[in-house]
Specification:
Length: about 475
């Protein structure tokens, strides 16, 4: 079966074919480290990890994953008033640039770990790669795609015919927005490759054009190319990076190397809150740590996978609670399987499970359709539960289902395969006996009352042919 991915560059679903058979070079834009990571970052990097794990664990590719840390400032709008984001954080917290970026890089790592996101294979810091950014800017100038004006280097968008193709933005409308800006620009949409030093900059380096710092977009052109050895397979980020970040990255790659540099551009939908993008600068964010106080990592992951990666997610505690129920349902099902088979089988051989294996893969192959893939899991649970009820699920089938779920969980990371030992407290045991007594006396009212009392204590009673069974109600 073949994996098909939606490529933002061609605006089509395309069969995924890496440059080198069996290997994938993957670059994802990393965070700018000037404040705590919010749940929007969590959503994007859970999706990044899902794509990466599917390529590795299911499709068998050897993936090299590079994700940068943006540890010097950049300005994204006029609202920045000439002060970059890291400089603002330095002023706010009365700390050095190093202290700010180290602190928030650690915060980011910590949040990623808690959300069970595998770290990239290489995590270059932008500040340690300024030399190659300068080399690329020199090439862009030599090739006639950039010009220098008063210590600043601009990319000349009029030289690149596909400028605007990725984002599909109307560039004339965009020009209107830029008109008031920099008088040194030849075209309103020209963007900065190297910015002349200003007091509002967090960092300063020497360059052939004088003191200053690189523009934001050049860092990803430089680090992607350096650590993935030239053109590579996949580049991802949130849809907020269509423009200007990735549009400009493509223009830079073309200006320097004559190629857009990447074969598949993948963009994830954003997390919004009350209909607005969750962002650090809007201060409408929920940090990952805050979210983890209310919901488990498994619940958050389930909530993310319940929508396709391109769709916008709106923060909703109701939907997170629904996600928790789904996680519980899968984990309760796993406990039922573990009563029939002790562990997963190495090889899936039963027709029942092969059928679901193929359906799951088909859903994921279709541009990582995780909601459909989850529906396949729940269909499997429904069919298997019917067989468990009628005592017709074989031990081999149970072991095969466990094998399939374990494999799925290398991507989703939200299941629990440990057999739960239920320790029933003495008080509950006593109440069960009392209820049995009431039942033999046909005192149904009292029996029901005791059952309710036991439920309140966190245990569920199920009457079955073999007698009464007691299980713990999950709490997280
Ligand atoms: P930043 O630190 O803002 O450059 O973002 C790092 C990554 O997180 C980028 O891929 C962004 O697209 C993504 N991101 C930022 N805000 C959100 C959001 N609200 N929802 C989803 N992804 C986001
Ligand atoms: Zn980037």
């Amino acid at each position: 079966m073949v994996l098909v991915l939606y490529n933002t560059w061609t605006k089509k679903k395309e069969v995924f074919k890496p440059i080198e058979p069996g290997k994938v070079g993957y670059y994802s834009c990393g965070p700018t480290v000037y404040s705590s990571s919010h749940l929007g970052h969590g959503v994007t990097y859970i999706r990044t990890d899902m794509l990466k794990q599917f390529l590795k664990k299911w499709k068998g590719f050897v993936v090299k994953h590079v994700q940068n840390i943006t540890d010097f400032g950049h300005m994204t709008s006029d609202a920045d008033e000439g002060i970059d984001k890291i400089k603002k954080a330095m002023d706010r917290e009365k700390k050095t640039a190093e202290d700010i970026t180290e602190f928030y890089t650690n915060d980011f790592h910590d949040s990623m770990k808690k959300l069970k996101i595998e770290p990239p294979d290489v995590e270059p810091k932008a500040s340690e790669n300024v030399d190659i950014m300068i080399e690329i800017i020199k090439k862009i100038i030599e090739n006639g795609y950039a010009y220098v004006k008063d210590g600043t280097v601009y990319f000349d968008v009029s030289k690149y015919k596909d400028y605007g193709k990725l984002s599909g933005k109307n560039m004339e409308a965009q020009e209107e927005k830029q008109r008031v800006a920099d008088p040194n620009k030849k075209n309103p949409n020209d963007f900065v490759l190297w910015a002349k030093h200003q007091p509002g900059h967090s960092h300063v380096w020497d360059s052939p054009w004088g003191k200053g710092m690189p523009g934001w977009h050049i860092e990803c052109s430089a680090m992607g190319r350096k650590y993935l050895d030239g053109d590579f397979d996949i580049h991802s980020g949130g849809v907020d990076h269509y423009f200007p970040h990735h549009e400009n990255e493509i223009a830079q790659n073309y200006g320097a190397f004559g190629s857009i540099g990447v074969n598949y551009w993948i963009h994830f939908g954003l997390l919004s809150i009350n209909g607005e993008k969750m962002s650090k600068s809007k201060e409408n964010f929920i940090t990952i740590s805050d979210a983890l106080e209310k919901f488990s990592p498994e619940t958050i992951r389930m909530w993310v996978f319940s929508s396709q990666y391109k769709s916008t997610l709106d923060y909703s505690e109701d939907n997170l609670r629904k996600a928790k129920e789904k996680v519980d349902k899968i984990n309760n099902f796993i406990q039922s399987l573990l009563k029939i088979a002790d562990s997963a089988d190495d090889k899936i051989e039963t027709d029942l499970v092969k059928k679901y294996y193929e359906k799951f893969e088909a859903a994921m192959d279709d541009n990582l359709n995780t909601p459909e893939a989850l529906a396949v899991i729940f269909d499997l649970i429904t069919e298997a539960n019917k067989k468990i009820d009628s005592k017709s699920l074989t031990k081999k089938e149970a072991a095969d289902i466990l094998a399939l779920l374990e494999k799925i969980d290398t991507i989703f990371k939200m299941m629990n395969f440990k057999k739960e030992k239920i320790e029933i407290p003495e008080e509950v045991k006593k109440l069960i006996q009392e209820r049995e007594k009431a039942r033999t006396e046909k005192n149904w009212k009292k029996a029901d009352e005791i059952r309710g009392q036991i439920r309140k204590m966190g245990y569920l009673l199920e009457d079955s042919e073999e007698g009464v069974k007691c299980r713990k109600i999950r709490s997280s």
